[in-house]
Specification:
68% helix, 409 residues, mainly alpha, two-stranded parallel ribbon, two-stranded antiparallel sheet, 10 helices, elongated
Length: 409
């Protein structure tokens, strides 16, 4: 039986719309049907690669297993997102809410619905959308097929050349997205070398030469460059989102600092001695940096600023809360004393303590230590004075009548 080879021209379907634009039911159905077929085809491709790996030498297996594991992780993440999309689509019952949710599921971060970290050995964790993950999986699969010697034979060289050319053109479309500088220059130079190799391969094929040994390495190099550019674009997008979140954090911390300074002024005006803590100025850190390493250090500084603001907030709020607690205690004890029946001496003492408390509580700022001590003395005295009084409504015990004496015999 002839061996079946995977179709090297199979590529992920084009995703409809963009993030924030609702996906209509017709577009979603077309996309989901194509994506379902693509996911099944990619799983079959990777399964064939997995079986082929077992026939390789131990050294070759070690070299290819890591990339195969990465590809399977991406496939699992895409498959999980497809399940969520089909659940949301619900056979075509798509309202405005579902249409927006479909857009978010397609163009939002893919790693938010999986416990697996989407990553490549050379780049670490990635935050990619579904279309980006599909393109990466296409690239990884083509590379694995070539390395496992599963690509079609020489009779299908024309089709393989067409696929490589398509990969080169997709790569060419990504070059303008790379920021001007060393990275773009390097990518442009690599693409130029691939173009020259492609021209040489086409010329050899036109002359009837066997290009089977040449096209495999070219397929790998084109797939690797395309993958690297996709990864770099995802990392730039992630860094841009991180800068936006960092700028939002700066604004939030600045607003918090202003509110805590107002709390500080209120505490200083309300009690003495008042706590004194430095309230950091987040603007002193300067603008949000662009470079990834500098951005990480900047976010660490913001975290320290946030902890300092938390401490200042808790400290000044506790000072005002202590004042309110003393005032509340005096009011409650005063009400208890007013409801009790006190002896003239106890009543005079309570009145004197209350007078001193009222004078102290009227002071601005409030001497909190003196107020706390007077409130404690006031509470203790009223408690002792009211304990000595019989409870209202309870009659005094009557003396018991003497028992009759039994006559002695």
């Amino acid at each position: 039986m002839p061996q079946s080879h995977p179709d090297p021209g199979t590529v992920a379907p084009t995703a409809p719309g963009r993030l924030g634009v609702p996906v209509q039911a017709g577009e979603a159905q077309t996309y989901l049907n194509a994506l379902r077929e693509w996911v099944a085809q990619r799983r079959a491709d990777l399964g064939e690669v997995d079986r082929a790996v077992l026939k390789l030498s131990q050294a070759e297996q070690v070299a290819i297993t890591t990339d195969l594991t990465v590809a399977l992780t991406f496939w699992k993440a895409v498959s999980d997102r497809l399940t969520l999309l089909e659940t949301t689509f619900d056979g075509g019952r798509v309202g405005p809410v579902e249409a927006e949710r479909l857009s978010t599921l397609i163009h939002g971060r893919l790693d938010s619905n999986t416990t697996e970290h989407l990553s490549l050995p050379s780049s670490g964790s990635l935050a990619v959308s579904l279309p980006e993950a599909c393109r990466l999986l296409d690239s990884l699969t083509r590379t694995l097929q070539a390395r496992a010697s599963l690509a079609p034979g020489a009779a299908e060289a024309t089709q393989r050349i067409t696929v490589v050319r398509a990969g080169i053109e997709r790569t060419r479309d990504q070059i303008p997205l790379v920021p001007a500088g060393t990275q773009r220059d390097d990518a442009t130079e690599k693409l130029a070398r691939l173009d020259r190799r492609m021209d040489d391969l086409v010329e050899r094929a036109r002359r009837g030469a066997d290009v089977g040994g040449i096209i495999g390495p070219l397929e790998i190099d084109v797939a690797v460059l395309e993958r690297d550019l996709i990864v770099a674009a995802a990392e730039r997008a992630s860094a841009a989102r991180s800068r936006v979140r960092t700028q939002q954090q700066v604004e939030e911390l600045d607003a918090r600092a202003a509110a805590i300074r107002a709390l500080e002024r209120a505490c200083l005006e309300a009690i003495t001695p008042a706590p004194h803590l430095a309230i950091p100025n987040v603007r002193a850190l300067g603008p949000v940096p662009q470079a990834a390493a500098e951005l990480t250090a900047y976010r660490d500084k913001l975290e320290r600023v946030s902890r300092a603001l938390d401490l200042a907030h808790e400290t000044y709020a506790a000072g005002l809360a202590e004042r309110d607690e003393v005032v509340g205690l005096v009011g409650a004890v005063g009400a208890m004393a007013a409801a009790a029946t006190l002896t003239p001496e106890a009543g005079a003492d309570v009145a004197e303590l209350r007078r001193r408390l009222d004078e102290t509580l009227a002071a601005r700022p409030l001497p909190i230590s003196r107020a706390r001590a007077l409130a404690a003395a006031f509470s203790a005295y009223v408690d002792a004075a009211t304990r000595q009084q019989p409870r209202a409504g309870r009659a005094a015990p009557r003396p018991s009548a003497p028992r009759p004496q039994r006559p002695r015999p």
